[in-house]
Structures are given as C-alpha cells and as structure tokens.
C-alpha cells in the first residue's frame, strides 16, 4: 500500500480530518499506522500521525511524506481507535487526542542515531554492517536517505541495532557527558608511546582507557585520573577520544533495593471481594467492579493479587493512583511485589525519565504501570486489568483539552481488551456508587479494617464556641491538649489545613479593601517567605502596600490562615515540637515531597502540617492524632460537589490515624458543625452521607440524576463576553428538548483571569442525543473568532471544577 492517511498537527476545524499522502517507494513497508511523520502542508512542513494505509484515493495529485519520525509505531491500533473515541467524547481535535496519549518527550525534538548493539556485531545483517564500516553511529535521517531503511528497521526490532536519542530541545536536556576512546587498546598504547614526556596527564588518561576499555562518564573519568577537562579536550581534538552528551537510561528508583514480598493470606472479606475479580480476569469478561472499602481495609492487597493473576496469565495491568499519593510508599508496595516488571509514571519525573518508563512499556519490558492520570494511555497490548484507586479523586479528570476522565477511558479501553476494571475507594464518587447500586458496576465491600483495628475516634469542635469562651487561637483547647499529649508520648500528629477555597489574603481593616490581582478578579495571596503578594492564576507578584491604596490607612492586615502562619503559631505555643510543613512552597523542588515524608516517617518530626497533599496514602504506624484546622473552607465554594468533596477529604485524612497497633484520634475544627457532610464524616458514615447527598442532588437536578455540561466563554471585552454568552445560551436552549435546562449566562465564579472576562452557561440534561452535534456546530460557528484568539470557548461535558 502506497498511500498514507495522515492527521496533521494543525489544530483547527478545517484541518481536523485525514489527509492523503503518497509513500515514497523506498519507504513502502516502512511506514505504518501509528507512526509520526513530517509532511508538506500548504507552504510548510508539519508533523502528523499516520492513521491508516491504502491503495486508492480520490485525489489526483498527492504530495509525498517527507520524513519518518519513528522506527516503530508509537500508537498501536487500539490507541488509534481510542483517539477517535476521545475526539468524539470530549469534542477535541483528533490531533489533540492523539498527542494526549504520548509522553511529552515525543513532542520534543529528538535526534535519533543508530549503533550496533554491543556484542551483537556478528548478528547484524551484512548490508547494514557494511554501512557501519567507517562509523560508529548513523543518524536515522541518514538511514532514511538510503534505500534500505526497512533493513535497518528490522535490525532494530531484533535488538541488533540500538537507538540512542539526542535531545535537540534545550529544555529537555537531561543528558550526561560521556567520553570514549576512538581507538582500540593496542592503538591507544601505540599512541601513548608517541606522547611527549610533558603530556603526563594525557598519558594517564590513555592508560586508564587501556585498562578500562569502553565509554565512561566524563565526571567519573576526571575523578579517577585527577585530570582536567582540558586534557580530555586535547585528546578529543586529536580524534583519540570522543565526547558526547547522551541520554542515559534513567531509573528513578535505581538505587533502591526492594525486598520481595509475597501475597498475604487474605481475610474472608478480602477473599470474597477478590473471587469475582479473578473470575472476570479468567473469563476475559469486561466487568466494572466498585471496591468500596474503608481506609486501611486492605484494598491495595486485592489490587496486588488481581495484578498477580493477570501477570500469570501473560497479560498486563494499569494501576492508577492520584498524583498526590504516588508517594514512594505506594510505589514501593508494587515494586516489592513485582520488582522489575513495574514502570512508574508521575509528574515528579523529568520528561526524559517519563519517556524511559513509557519506553519500557512500549518495548514490553514491563507488565505493570503504576501512574497518575495519563498512565491510562500506557501502550500495552494485552491488558488484563485496569485499576483506579481513590476513584473519586477529581485529579483523574484532565482540566485542559482533551477534557477526559481517566475512569471513562479505563472503561473504554477495558471494553476493547475484554478485561475488568476495578474502581476502589473508601468514599466513592456519588456517580459511581449510584451505578453500583443500579448494578451497572458490581459492588464489592470491605467493611472492616485490617488487624481489626478500629476506625479512629472523631471529635468535632465548634470553633464559634471556642471564640465565645475567649479562645482566639487557631487551635481549640481540645486539639491543643491532644497535641501536647502526643508530644509527651512521642507519637506523631498530622495537621491538615484545608486551604482550597481561600488562602491568606490582605485586607485593610479601616475600609475593608482586599488587595486583588490587577488582571484577575481574585485576591492576591500573601507569601511570607519573600514577603510578597502573588496571584495564583496569572503569576502577578507585587510588594505589600504599606498603606491602603483606597483610604490611605496603615492598618493593613493578613487574613486567612496559611500553613506558614500555622507553623509560626505552633512554634509559639509548642516550642518543643518539631514541625514539617508540606505545601506548594516547600514541595516545589523535585523530590522534596518524598524527602519530607521520609523525614517524618523516620521520626525526625512530631507534627506533619500540610494542605490537601498530606491527606492521602500515608500509612505510618506512629500517627495517632489527626487534626483538621478548618473543615469548612471548601463547603462554601460555588460547586454542587462541595459537600461531597468536603466529606471525602475529611474521611480520607481521618483514615491516616491509628492504622496499625496504636489507636487513633481525630479532631475536626469547624464553624458549621451542623452541616451534614461534617457531621457524617465525623461518624465515617458514607452510606448515610450518600443517601443525604443523593436526596439533595435529586431535588436540585444535579448528577447523578442529571448530566451537566459547562460552556465557558472568555474575551477581553466584558460586553462582548456577556453578549456572546447570551447568544450561545439562546442557541443551545433552542436546540435542546424542553427537558433540558440552560442556566446562564452568568459571570463565572472567577470572573476575570489574565485580563479576560469569563462567563458561563451550564446545561443540565437527562437525554439529549443531539447535544454534541449542537455544540460542534456552535464551535464551528465561532471558529473564525476563536482561531484568532479573541474569543475563547471551552466546553466541558463532565465538569469537575465549576470555577
Ligand atoms: P487500603 O488500601 O484499603 O487503605 P491497605 O491495603 O493499605 O488498605 O491495607 C492496610 C494494611 O493492612 C497494610 O499495612 C497492609 O499491608 C495490611 N494488609 C492488607 N491485607 C492483609 C492481609 N490479608 N493480611 C495481613 N495484612 C494485610
Ligand atoms: Zn483602606
Ligand atoms: Zn492574576
């Protein structure tokens, strides 16, 4: 077949389809669906994905593929199909969907070079070997110039040739400098004999290579022979040595040894939950299980044993966990059980590291991937199970195009592979639990904690009463007493500051002015460490005004409670306590998240103070107290899920206490103790919460009873934004059935970001088969204006964040 269908990297409505290109004769059988290519498009060259091959086209004149970027397809057939599905489901461009499935490194510019794999020279095809006669490396570009590219490709597949990637893109520079001799040991010795006596260092370097042939990291070499960079440069200039930056095969967990663990003997409850999963794995049946188990009930052990069954069957597993709980602790449990067969993908890895992990999957060197959201696109070809832990987490939804939810993708992929999906949580999303109750998902329940340890005792403290009793501190009497008690006993405490929703802002006490960002309608956040005000949306930063810009008063004060402020308060009231603070500021550096947790685990601190990021995944035996400083900050967000999110967070964080031998206690401080989500999280009663919340959702016509879709419109001009949203709302209403509701236009909760005004309308509906088509027409209608970026319209068919 000599014609390729290509999706080009020009994300626009008119180009959102396949274009045909002819394949030059020398590349017939080389070009395959799922490969990236460079093709002429109009006057320029663009990247594209080959989506199919064919012999015929309606077009008279075809242009030729210019370059092939991959040696093997980077997307397999199933993922190409998944791309179409994503396009349709999330209303994105096909190119956007295809790119979303690849690691970032494949979007950067790499130069590929080939070389003969060490020790395999004899196995290499003669013609290919001939090409290497006078050189060590051949760039892939050069290979493409030759007529026998397919030959090289075969050798790569057989493992006789290896592919090395040079990063062209400076941004992704994650390389190490290597030095290697260009001569054989004998030649080196010969050459050393000719050196002048003064070139002592050069001589030593040569001796080193005679004794240790092969390439070595420059730094190691310099240390070993105590030579300077200049010495190496001199030898390189004479073509004795070659220097080169190489992408090394990085293993982020390289230096750690994992002791192999064996499966636990399951409890009766666990066995009962695992049995139907195993049956489904054995019978290749596409079932969706909801594993509903309280914190510490042994869900992870069930995941591990399910994956084990899958590996024994010769198949592969995807294990998703929320980004935030991809802690070394979690990863360790999988590495300990499955060792080298595990790849790990999370945002803490560099682009290159992520790419390496992806490559392990692509080359079938691993059987399991443990990763955050995007790991759902792992290029496995024999999936046996997909597991999503903490399935209620909103981070499984991507908040930029393609706006997919990993849960939906999981179910779609598992359907293609005829394998089960396991969704696990102590606080399932309402939508999921409702589906389980309707038997769309199979409900599996773990009601008991391991070792029969009790769920912690939870106490809810009314902060209004504390204030009435004269306590103006951010710690209630009770929490303070318990903190002191743990300090004396040498036990550990986790303190959660629920920051989402508000943070420390600056206000004038005389006139009430809050200092806002000049570009966004949102208050600036105070950062103590450099004493400045910062906007979390656009990055704007300014100094704190000495006097109020409105009334001139100098009574400028900080409100709200940041983690820094809590830390300072702790130092004051409990000077002997050792505190570790975890928030965006202290964890922005790579690896710092892990370092802080390790220090806490090793007992170098008494109190772990942090934001949401400490609520999950911690499983430390010495934590016996959890304090929540402000339970209700999230409750008042303009979001129909705010109660659900509050309940989930409080339950999660409470679950950190007393997971092992020592019993745990939880203190929740709140200004609205009567709110059901706080009250019921205190009782850890998900079932009651579910009933209560479902009732409210039914009354207010929200999911799971109704679907919602959110249209967001933004423009620099306020009138234009409002008017366009008005038009859109009318258009949508007219196109839908009378059952559907269109709310808006209204200003978005954050009504301006980066100087663009934001309006929205919300669609609530039960069944509107024509909705997507309607929205597509809408996007087409505004195509011109959105292409020029004057107007932005984003459509979210399953919004998780309503801001
Ligand atoms: P969850 O994932 O539900 O929060 P975990 O899987 O972390 O719970 O289990 C809690 C603790 O119990 C862990 O330390 C785990 O190693 C242990 N555990 C799990 N299953 C068993 C079992 N069958 N026998 C003994 N210990 C177990
Ligand atoms: Zn003022
Ligand atoms: Zn801003």
From TrEMBL:
User: Belongs to which family?
Assistant: Belongs to the helicase family. PriA subfamily.
Q: Offer one Pfam family short name for this entry.
A: Zn_ribbon_PriA
Where Zn(2+) 1 binds, per the record, is at 508, 511, 548, 551
SUPFAM superfamilies from the entry? P-loop containing nucleoside triphosphate hydrolases (SSF52540)
Please give the subunit comment from the record: Component of the replication restart primosome.
Superkingdom of this protein's organism: Bacteria
Chain segments annotated as coiled-coil in the UniProt record: none
Q: Which UniProt keywords apply?
A: ATP-binding, DNA replication, DNA-binding, Helicase, Hydrolase, Isomerase, Metal-binding, Nucleotide-binding, Primosome, Zinc
Gene3D superfamilies cross-referenced by the UniProt entry? P-loop containing nucleotide triphosphate hydrolases, PriA, 3(prime) DNA-binding domain
Xref: CDD domains:
DEXHc_priA (cd17929), SF2_C_priA (cd18804)
**Gene for this chain:** priA
Q: GO molecular function, one example?
A: zinc ion binding
Instruction: Please tell me where Zn(2+) 2 binds in this chain.
Output: 517, 520, 535, 538
Q: Which organism is it from?
A: Peribacillus cavernae
Q: Which lineage is the organism of this entry classified under, starting from the top rank?
A: Bacteria, Bacillati, Bacillota, Bacilli, Bacillales
Q: How is the cofactor bound?
A: Binds 2 zinc ions per subunit.
Chemical reaction(s) catalysed: ATP + H2O = ADP + phosphate + H(+); Couples ATP hydrolysis with the unwinding of duplex DNA by translocating in the 3'-5' direction
The residue ranges of the Helicase C-terminal domain are 543-719
Needed cofactors: Zn(2+)
- Record InterPro entries: Helicase/UvrB_N (IPR006935), Helicase_ATP-bd (IPR014001), Helicase_C-like (IPR001650), P-loop_NTPase (IPR027417), PriA (IPR005259), PriA_3primeBD (IPR041222), PriA_3primeBD_sf (IPR042115), PriA_C (IPR041236)
GO CC annotation, single: primosome complex
Give the GO biological process terms: DNA recombination; DNA replication initiation; DNA replication, synthesis of primer; double-strand break repair
Q: What is the recorded function of this protein according to its Swiss-Prot or TrEMBL entry?
A: Initiates the restart of stalled replication forks, which reloads the replicative helicase on sites other than the origin of replication. Recognizes and binds to abandoned replication forks and remodels them to uncover a helicase loading site. Promotes assembly of the primosome at these replication forks.
Q: What is its EC number?
A: 5.6.2.4
Location of the Helicase ATP-binding domain? 280-446
Task: Name it.
Answer: Replication restart protein PriA
């Amino acid at each position: 077949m000599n014609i390729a269908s290509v999706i080009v990297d020009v994300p626009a409505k008119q180009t959102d389809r396949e274009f045909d290109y002819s394949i030059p004769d020398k590349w017939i059988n080389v070009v395959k669906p799922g490969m990236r290519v460079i093709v002429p498009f109009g006057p320029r060259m663009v990247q594209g994905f080959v989506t199919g091959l064919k012999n015929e086209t309606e077009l008279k004149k075809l242009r030729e593929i210019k370059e092939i970027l991959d040696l093997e397809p980077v997307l397999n057939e199933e993922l190409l199909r998944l791309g179409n599905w994503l396009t349709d489901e999330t209303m994105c461009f096909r190119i956007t969907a295809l790119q979303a499935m690849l690691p970032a490194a494949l979007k950067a510019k790499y130069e590929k070079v080939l070389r003969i794999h060490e020790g395999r020279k004899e196995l290499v095809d003669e013609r290919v070997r001939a090409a290497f006669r006078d050189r060590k490396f051949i760039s892939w570009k050069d290979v493409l110039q030759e007529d026998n590219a397919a030959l090289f490709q075969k050798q790569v597949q057989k493992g006789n040739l290896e592919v090395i990637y040079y990063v062209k893109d400076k941004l992704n520079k994650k390389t190490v400098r290597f030095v290697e001799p260009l001569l054989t040991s004998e030649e080196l010795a010969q050459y050393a004999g000719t050196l002048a006596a003064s070139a002592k260092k050069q001589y030593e370097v040569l001796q080193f290579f005679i004794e240790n042939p092969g390439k070595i990291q420059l730094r190691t070499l310099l240390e070993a022979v105590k030579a300077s960079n200049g010495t190496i440069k001199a030898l390189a200039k004479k073509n004795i040595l070659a220097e080169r930056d190489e992408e090394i095969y990085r293993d982020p967990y390289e230096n750690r040894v994992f002791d192999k663990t064996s499966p636990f003997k399951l409890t009766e409850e666990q066995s009962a939950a695992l049995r139907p999963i195993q049956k489904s794995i054995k019978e290749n049946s596409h079932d969706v299980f909801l594993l509903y188990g309280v914190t510490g009930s042994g869900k992870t052990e069930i995941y591990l044993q399910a994956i084990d069954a899958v590996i024994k069957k010769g198949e592969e597993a995807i294990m998703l966990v929320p980004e935030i709980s991809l802690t070394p602790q979690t990863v360790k449990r999988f590495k300990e059980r499955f060792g080298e067969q595990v790849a790990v993908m999370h945002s803490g890895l560099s682009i290159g590291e992520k790419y390496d992990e992806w490559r392990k999957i692509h080359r079938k060197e691993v059987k399991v991937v443990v990763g955050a959201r995007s790991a759902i696109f792992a290029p496995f070809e024999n999936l046996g199970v997909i597991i999503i832990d903490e399935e209620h987490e909103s981070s499984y939804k991507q908040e930029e195009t393609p706006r997919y939810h990993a849960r939906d993708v999981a179910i779609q992929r598992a359907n293609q592979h005829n394998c089960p999906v396991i969704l696990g949580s102590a606080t399932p999303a309402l939508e999921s639990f409702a589906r389980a109750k309707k038997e769309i998902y199979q409900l599996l329940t773990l009601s008991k904690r391991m070792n029969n340890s009790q769920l912690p005792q939870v106490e809810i403290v009314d902060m209004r009463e504390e204030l009435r009793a004269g306590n103006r501190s951010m710690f209630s009497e009770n929490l303070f007493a318990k903190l002191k008690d743990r300090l004396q006993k040498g036990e550990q405490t986790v303190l959660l500051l629920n920051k989402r929703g508000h943070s420390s802002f600056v206000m004038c006490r005389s006139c009430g002015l809050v200092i806002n960002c000049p570009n966004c309608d949102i208050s600036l956040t105070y950062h103590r460490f450099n004493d400045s005000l910062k906007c979390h949306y656009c990055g704007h930063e300014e100094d704190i005004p000495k006097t109020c810009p409105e009334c001139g008063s100098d009574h400028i004060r900080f409100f709200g409670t940041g983690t820094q402020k809590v830390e300072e308060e702790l130092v004051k009231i409990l000077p002997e306590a050792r505190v570790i603070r975890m928030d965006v500021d202290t964890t922005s550096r790579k690896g710092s998240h892990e370092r802080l947790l390790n220090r806490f685990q090793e007992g170098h601190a008494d109190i772990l103070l942090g934001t949401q990021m400490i609520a999950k995944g911690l499983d430390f035996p010495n934590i016996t107290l959890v304090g929540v400083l402000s339970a209700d900050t999230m409750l008042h967000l303009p979001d129909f899920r705010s109660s659900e999110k509050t309940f989930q967070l409080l339950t999660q964080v409470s679950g950190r206490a007393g997971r092992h031998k020592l019993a745990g206690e939880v203190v929740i401080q709140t200004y609205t103790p009567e709110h059901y989500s706080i009250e019921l999280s205190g009782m850890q009663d998900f079932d009651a919460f579910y009933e209560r919340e479902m009732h409210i959702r039914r009354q207010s016509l929200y999911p799971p009873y109704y679907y919602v879709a959110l249209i967001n419109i933004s423009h620099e001009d306020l009138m234009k934004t409002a008017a366009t949203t008005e038009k859109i709302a009318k258009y949508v209403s007219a196109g839908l059935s009378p059952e559907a509701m269109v709310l808006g236009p209204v200003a978005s909760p954050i009504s301006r970001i980066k100087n663009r005004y934001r309006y929205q309308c919300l669609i609530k509906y039960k069944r509107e088969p024509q909705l997507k088509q309607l929205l597509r027409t809408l996007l087409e209608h505004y195509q011109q204006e959105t292409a020029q970026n004057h107007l932005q319209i984003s459509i979210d068919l399953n919004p998780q964040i309503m801001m």
